[in-house]
Amino acid sequence: MIKRLLLNILVLLMLTLVSNNSYGQQEPSFTQYMYNTMTINPAYAGTRDVLSANLLYRSQWIGIEGAPQTQSLTVHSPINEGRMGLGLNVINDQIGPVSETMFSGTYSYILPIDRYTSISFGLNAGAELFNIDFTELNIFDEQDTSFQNNVDNKISPQVGVGAMIYNDKFYVGLSVPRLLRTEYYETEDNSNTVATSRAHYYFTAGYVFDINDNIRFKPSILSRYVSGSPLRVDVSANFLINEAFSIGGSYRLSSSYGLMTSYQISDAILAGISYDRDSSELRNFNDGTFEIFLRFELFKKYRKMYTPRFF
Question: Which of helix, strand or coil describes residue 279?
């Protein structure tokens, strides 16, 4: 009963936050964003110099019925001798009766600044499918017209842009992966829009410090801003040991904290897992957030990378 009530509260909060009077954070969040960068910045496409595919699954607020579930697939590769990149993004996000699938193609143009450092400019274009099934809710007033008509596969175009400066030691990125304002849902008489999306602005950065020949340390940061909502900041720090095993922690300002780890199973396969706990009162009603990813890379220039990229 309590879990069902929490589901209704979560959905009502979501609809309130995306109303035409206020705008909340609507894009999926990832604890292991440093391994899933192309979902937020199209300029990342092709920058790893190999064909790279990433699968990620995230289960948020375990134990709450209808809590957010997110799956993502990204594939990207350099083309034209590394001067450009092409990629594909597919993200499926669901919370209670609301589901959204986003898919886009990605293009980047890469310019060398010096022997070691490059700058990449990216563009993504695609569409979003949006669904709401109100029959999954316990509606107090069944005559309320706002909850009588489901939204089925509403298609909306979307474009985004990004830029990134990087080398093997650091990266700094700016991006807006969804530029277009989208109106998902209106009241029955079309007099009021009750679900819209707005552009989210991302800043990412990280640096790799060589502690010794076997240990590297990388702090990183991701900040996200959308009009009508407080600035959101994620800070993480990872240690890479023997170029294979990494372990670290993360902190989301006024929201959550967690642990993450990954292992380079082979030169082509990297696997990672993370677990977060809320730092707000919501921690009393859920068992945390779980995330797992797999990255596959093919056609490396060298049989073994001498210094594996840490992002």
Answer: coil
